[in-house]
Amino acid sequence: xxxxxxxxxxxxxxxxxxxxxxxxxxxxxxxxxxxxxxxxxxxxxxxxxxxxxxxxxxxxxxxxxxxxxxxxxxxxxxxxxxxxxxxxxxxxxxxx
Length: 96
Fold this sequence. Notes:
The protein has helices at about 1-10, 15-20, 30-50, 55-70, 85-95. The chain is built from five helices and no strands. It is mainly alpha-helical.
């Protein structure tokens, strides 16, 4: 079980088509892409918060709050491969 949990700590390879679709206007396809991103990256961001010393509850709250802000503030609009790694964007955003 620990190996399964540890493997989920890692960030998946970025599927830029999903990221770019998620950053588009409010369409059914964009909402599905956004849901896919949230599902793919929730656990790695949660594990990152835990490694930074947060309790289980605090890490869950921080991760949920991060995704809530991501959705409310439309952070994905304008992202692209040329602007850098998606993982770096997520971690920098979570840190701020």
